[in-house]
């Protein structure tokens, strides 16, 4: 079986590693992780939807972060995911 650019076999491990950055105690890795997730979302578009189930719990945690830049970026990503999926994802947070 060949791994294509859209295959979750390729993106799932990478997405998980990036999401783990957002669990750092420091603000910089969290913001970096969020920026990468936003980049994935903007460039993969519908192909990223298969990774929503794994990503949403991390976003839920980040929406409760004490740092405003992290909350704001997480909110932007959530809105973009909702726009792309066509449904509200807040019930899953």
TrEMBL record:
InterPro entries: UTP10. GO terms for cellular component: 90S preribosome; small-subunit processome; t-UTP complex. GO terms for biological process: maturation of SSU-rRNA from tricistronic rRNA transcript (SSU-rRNA, 5.8S rRNA, LSU-rRNA); positive regulation of transcription by RNA polymerase I. GO terms for molecular function: snoRNA binding. This is Uncharacterized protein.
